[in-house]
Design a protein that fits this description.
Length: 148
């Protein structure tokens, strides 16, 4: 028995709705990196905590979230994710233990790739090539300093 166009459209819509609900209810299926992130404060679909974060003084709500979710939690405003750090110990741990991650530059395709062909140390991300170039520049500056 062939399906008419209305039944087929309804079937496709139902399958899409079910898949969307599964992905939304189980975010770890969508992106495995979410498993290692801090707990997420639940909010409205799509807008999430946008209006809360736009208040003049959201301190009270942030304190409540800190008590409920702990030292680290994350919120979302449209498509941007914010990670909130609520203690000096958590901040120190992030800076001390993960400094290699946080000390690098953000990707800048126009300045890094197009303008400088990825060879200017000022625009390079932290890594093996950056460290090598920095060592060369440091040695050259020591030699130049010794000559003066």
């Amino acid at each position: 028995m062939p399906l008419d166009s209305k039944s087929l459209a309804l079937y496709v819509f139902a399958v899409a709705l079910i898949l969307t609900l599964i992905i939304k209810l189980f975010p770890r299926l969508r992106d495995p990196r979410l498993a290692s992130q801090p707990p997420h404060v639940r909010g409205w679909p799509i807008i999430n905590q946008t209006f809360v974060q736009q208040r003049d003084d959201p301190t009270g709500i942030l304190i409540d979230w800190a008590q409920k979710y702990g030292e680290l939690f994350r919120t979302t405003s449209c498509t941007t994710t914010f990670v909130w750090i609520n203690s000096r110990n958590a901040f120190k741990e992030l800076i001390d233990r993960k400094s290699a991650i946080y000390s690098s530059r953000h990707p800048m395709p126009m300045t890094q790739d197009v303008v400088s062909a990825g060879k200017r140390i000022l625009f390079m991300p932290y890594g093996r090539e950056w460290r090598t170039l920095r060592q060369i520049i440091h040695k050259v500056s020591q030699i130049m300093g010794a000559l003066n």
